[in-house]
Amino acid sequence: MKKIGLGIALIIIITIIAIIQNNEKQNVLEPEYVFTYAENQPENYPTTLGGHKFAELVEERTNGRIKIMVQAEGILGDEKAVIQQMQFGGIDFTRASLSTLSESNPKLNVLQMPYLYQDSKHMWKVLEGEIGDEFLNSFAGSDLVALSWYDAGARNFYNTKRPIKSLEDMSGLRIRVQESDLMIDMVEALGAVAVPIVYDDVYSALETDVIDGAENNWPSYEIKSHYEVAKYYTVDEHTRVPEVQLCAKSTWDKLSTEDQEIISECAKESALYERALWIEREKQSQKIISENGVEVVVLSAEEKERFREAVTKVYEEYCGDYMDMIEQIIKEGTQ
Ligand code: GCU
Predict the structure, then answer these.
(1) How far apart are CA 310 and CA 9, in angstroms?
(2) Which value, in Å, is the radius of gyration of the alpha carbons in the chain?
(3) Which protein residue's CA is at the shortest distance from atom 6 of ligand 1?
(4) Phi and psi dihedrals of 117, rounded to 5?
(5) Which portions of the chain are predicted below pLDDT 70?
């Protein structure tokens, strides 16, 4: 009798454990939300790896309730198209360059003005401080929610024709720029001809001589193989264009406050991860570039001053209303 009782108790316990395990399994296997995340860089690029880290953290902290599918290589469209789709809720998340976003939010130009930051440390001091927060919050009321800043280093000029050592060397070069009025005017102020082209088309435009050159950070120049065709790279660090992780407002509004907090927290953590990867990737890209016959010129301090003077009028045009903020940013670099 005793044995039968024990047997029944055991069966009950095993059944309860099986039910609990099954419930847990179901929780993990059936996400409540499956979201899309657009990224225009290749898989092994720091921002893409940051996006994957973000997805992983969110999945972990929501016990699999929220799944984010990172689609790299620009398969969901170029940055401009992705932003448009996000405004209609067609894509849930992305990581985008501020240049693309400033066309609809011109105040963002302040953060990417030419020769504004002394170095990376200066830019991060600004982005991590009050100004950075103010800009993330400046998306409020739009169709997008800004989550965190990603690193994209400094941008430099490169071309197929000649080493750029002076302002005169810029003259007449057809330089690809992002689809941004600020970038067009900056390049033209330096004496070159600006040609706006989508990122993915730059390699073939260089190869077929549609353009003479472009400008980008070391990792982009390397990973997109632009160095194979444009052998002159000049380090002038004309801009540091921060990147931002975004969520479509329509997606954001579907989530509970707790889930919104998890998403914000994971985005910020993934940004720290991306920034660490960025430093490594810059070094790796520089090594690949130096091993592949690229002539790298570091612009002299005197010439850089001439470049800086040449773009003064761009400040007047784009930051007239925000000069106090520009001054504040410059001040941050001296403290
Ligand atoms: C960087 C940035 C991309 C952007 C590209 C460009 O590589 O990470 O998001 O599209 O610049 O020059 O268009």
Answers:
(1) 85
(2) 24
(3) 199
(4) -95, 145
(5) 1-29
Task: Please give the full DSSP string across 123-168, using - where no structure is assigned.
Answer: HHHHHHSHHHHHHHHTTTTSSEEEEEEE----EEEEESS----SGG
| C-alpha–C-alpha distance, residues 154 and 225, integer Å | 18
Distance 9 CA to ligand 1 centre (A): 64
Kindly report the protein residue whose alpha carbon is nearest to atom 3 of ligand 1.
97
Which pTM value belongs to this model? 0.91
Among 80, 193, 167, CA closest to 115: 167
Residue count (the chain): 335
| pLDDT per position as a tens digit, 129-146 | 999 999 999 999 999 999
Distances in Å between the Cα of 108 and the Cα atoms of 180, 259, 292, 331 are 12, 27, 36, 19
Q: What is the pLDDT of residues 173-218, one digit of tens each?
A: 999 999 999 999 999 999 999 999 999 999 999 999 999 999 999 9
User: Does residue 299 sit in helix, strand or coil?
Assistant: coil
Residues 6+ apart with CB under 8 A from 274: 46, 47, 49, 50, 53, 150, 151
